[in-house]
Amino acid sequence: MKQHYEVVVIGGGIIGCSIAYYLAKEKVDVGLFERDRIGTKTTSAAAGMLGAHSESNGEDTIFSFARSSQQAYNELKDELYTLSGIDIGYREGGILKLVFSDADKYRLTSLLKQPTVKWLDKEEVKKMEPMISPNVLGAAYIMDDMSVMPVQTCESFANSARILGASIFENNDVYKVEEKGDNYLVRTTKGDVEASYVVFATGVYGNGLFKQIGLDEELVPVKGESLIVHNEKHALKHTLFHESCYIVPRTNGKLVIGATMIENDWGDSVSLDGIKVLIEKAKSMLPSAIEWKIDHVKAGLRPSTFDGNPFIGSHPEKEKILVACGHYRNGILLAPATGKMICDFILGKKMNREWVEAFRVDRRQSMVI
Ligand SMILES: Cc1cc2nc3c(=O)[nH]c(=O)nc-3n(C[C@H](O)[C@H](O)[C@H](O)COP(=O)(O)OP(=O)(O)OC[C@H]3O[C@@H](n4cnc5c(N)ncnc54)[C@H](O)[C@@H]3O)c2cc1C
Description:
The chain is α+β, with helices and mostly antiparallel strands. Helix content is 30%, strand content 28%.
């Protein structure tokens, strides 16, 4: 381990690994420290939807950020494969937001105004997915939304960063960050390093370090449980989505049924009740789902902030401490744009002002109550 890095990134989930990748691509000397193994915490529980449309009303700032991140994957899938040899499981096909009632359809009004979204009636949905529930009245077909496999994407970011010169340290916990002259001393369980910049990409797990560096904000976990299944017979072509539950087909033949939303639960176990809810939900969208075989179950903690938007930017008083946490339900989708934005902060490049304002770490103070 060297004694000094230009940038130390704390956390090796998808956000930290994307940041390391974009920095290494710009030839910045970067060291990333992960207390566990790369991509094994919240990132490993994600379904991997790149649902820019399905998670937003299409009008807010987060939508333009999400859309730019989603589009970045178009090039990244090849770029990362060429460098790392890891296939990130990029899959097109779109998302069908199913409608079972008039109220469901009403909720899709603004989504249906988007140019890349079209309304399909019952028969059209059935043509696309022959096994769909007879209770479905129609669907908003989001043509542009796609998916990736989160663990492979995270590992691919990390390996590509390594190939471009980044140092990646696993099983290495950062327990303290102190000021040392113009630099920071980053204290890890395997020794200390100095850095000009420190980036907190600690997911939901950074509250202790936040306090140490004088940040008042806290990340709150929203636990999500999911079922990973496989089936030989009927291959789903499109992601199905209804009321925050979904079935996502993957390029490896498996499907993810997700996900529960349990606030303020720091545990990572999967409950029988959670599995029951997911099975019922999957059956209501696709009755034949009951024939599928369980591969494994998974739970993860979505890192949520007070307003649901991530923190991406500098510490209010310490410009060279940066934060990239709180990506809640969309960290896989937002990883490329976040990595690029943190890189632009460090290199002093021009940035989209709306994004900078919307994701500022101290935005709560400037909110009108
Ligand atoms: C069930 C479920 C489904 C989801 N589905 C989707 C989806 O379809 N699409 C989507 O875009 N998003 C989805 N998400 C959200 C997405 O998983 C998260 O937003 C994303 O993984 C957050 O990434 P992260 O890197 O911030 O956090 P993490 O993956 O948790 O990574 C943070 C890392 O920091 C490390 N760390 C923390 N503190 C320290 C320290 N002091 N020293 C060293 N290392 C440290 C941790 O060990 C951890 O590995 C889903 C989440 C869940 C739970």
